[in-house]
Write a structure and sequence with these properties.
Length: about 160
């Protein structure tokens, strides 16, 4: 029998096996991030899922209405995008409350926290720039429309004359 040197079998891990292991780990990490919502920072930038923010606002408003969380339902503004336009809405706005009515969720804000009064307060107090008053919608109306409708800010006490 003739032997040619000291030939051994291949030792260690091949390059192909190493690459497949790394690729497998990356795929598992992406699947886990996707399942837990960890990829929202990517999807928010490229708008793959349109209407997602509107649905999440509707769901949070449903919880606030069911649990009678008046502040969250009547005064907390959420930023959404509808038809490519940025808007700020409360749960009591027509856009959101109409969708909640289908689930039989009704909450009353009373006159002091009416949709218009809270929207005027938001325009005045939250720093909507004057240059954006005719562009940014708050509860379905621009700040300029709200101002011209005569709605008053409920958080500013009227001046009294002596």
């Amino acid at each position: 029998m003739v032997m040619f040197g000291n030939r051994r079998g291949q030792e260690g891990i091949t390059l192909t096996t190493l690459l497949l292991i790394v690729l497998g780990v990356i795929v598992v990490v992406v699947i886990i991030l996707g399942a837990t919502g960890g990829l929202n920072f990517v999807f928010d930038k490229i708008n793959i899922v349109p209407g997602q923010s509107l649905e999440s606002v509707r769901q949070s408003c449903g919880l606030a209405g069911k649990n009678e969380l008046k502040f969250d339902y009547c005064r907390e503004f959420k930023e959404i995008e509808v038809d490519g336009q940025k808007q700020f809405v409360t749960c009591s706005s027509k856009l959101i409350s109409d969708t909640l009515a289908a689930d039989e969720i009704y909450a009353s804000c009373g006159d002091e926290l009416s949709v218009e009064k809270v929207a005027v307060a938001f325009c005045n107090n939250k720093g909507v720039k004057a240059s954006e008053w005719d562009k940014v919608k708050v509860n379905g109306q621009t700040c300029k429309e709200l101002e011209s409708s005569g709605a008053k800010n409920p958080y500013i006490k009227p001046e009294t004359t002596s």
